[in-house]
Amino acid sequence: MRLLIFLTLIVTFFWKSLGTNACQSDLLFLIDSSGSVHEKWTLQLESVSNIISKLDLLNEKISVIVYASKMKQRTKIRFDNKLKTEDLQKMIKELPFFSGITATGAALRFAKKELENRRKHLKTNVVFVTDGFSYDNVTEPAKELHSLSDLRLFAISVNEPNNQEDLEILAGTPERVLKGTKASDRLVEMIRNECQPKMSDQLSTKEPTVSPLKSCKKSQQIDGY
């Protein structure tokens, strides 16, 4: 009996640890700072701030890229920065607005370089915050980004109008294109939902183990002892 209790505790600890590691991830924001989003710039930053405040970012690493034209791309927060949540929120609030034309395709290639600094053994959630309009082509650089392993890509737009077609190219699927003032809340929910099933799925697919003692007793009953 004591052995059974001990084994139960060990298995429970193992699955909890596995679930925690499965849920841990890095987070990269690409925030459009071009002229077309000028009126919604503050709302975009509030969306990013809301995501950070609602996710448990104790062990996550965050990077933030602000972009406009091909010559205006800046990594304002890097993966290797160790920041408290309040310091991170302050930096988000103070991100610069560049204005100018939009070159999302160039920003995608810029982001690919920044992703080299992520933790390779974890998932990385990449969040585009943009209206989807761009003066350069996004299809090919988006394919390059989607080809990388362990990425989950989302596109958030708080702007009207927006370019649904290019937003889907960025996110890779319509389900990960989120619009409106509640887009950030839905993103947090999606990230949490993608995290939660992993532990339960693994538990449900794991074959039950039979203790040697029970197996022995069962064998004795069959043999008539």
Question: What is the compact description of this entry?
Answer:
This protein is α/β, with parallel strands linked by helices and 225 residues long. It has helices at residues 2-23, 41-54, 85-93, 104-114, 139-146, 164-171, 183-195, 197-205, 212-223, and strands at residues 25-32, 62-67, 73-77, 123-129, 151-157, 177-179. The chain has a six-stranded mixed beta sheet, with helices on both faces.
Characterise the protein shown here.
- Pfam families: VWA (PF00092).
- Keywords: Signal.
- Residues 26-203 form the VWFA domain.
- It comes from Mesorhabditis belari.
- Residues 1-19 form the signal peptide.
- This protein is α/β, with parallel strands linked by helices and 225 residues long.
- The chain has a domain at 35-148 and 159-195: Rossmann fold (3-Layer(aba) Sandwich), CATH 3.40.50.
- Helix content is 47%, strand content 16%.
- Strands 3-2-1-4-5-6 form a 6-stranded mixed β-sheet, with helices on both faces.
- Helix 5 links the parallel strand 4 and strand 5.
- Helix 2 (41-54) runs antiparallel to helix 3, helix 2 packs parallel to helix 7 and helix 4 (104-114) runs parallel beside helix 5.
- The longest helix has 22 residues, at 2-23.
- It is globular and about 70 Å long.
By helix and strand content, what is the structural category?
A: alpha/beta
**CATH topology type of one domain:** Rossmann fold
**SSE string, helix = H, strand = E?**
HEHEEHHEHEHEHHH
Radius of gyration: 23 Å
The level-1 CATH class of one domain: Alpha Beta
Q: Biggest sheet: strands, sense, closure?
A: 6 strands, mixed
CA distance, first residue to last residue: 23 Å
Q: Judging from the principal axes of the Cα atoms, what is the shape?
A: globular
Task: Name the CATH superfamily classification of one domain.
Answer: von Willebrand factor, type A domain
Our estimate of the beta-strand percent is 15-25%
> What is the average per-residue confidence, as pLDDT, rounded to a whole number?
82
So how many helices?
9
User: Helical amount among residues, as a percent range?
Assistant: 40-55%
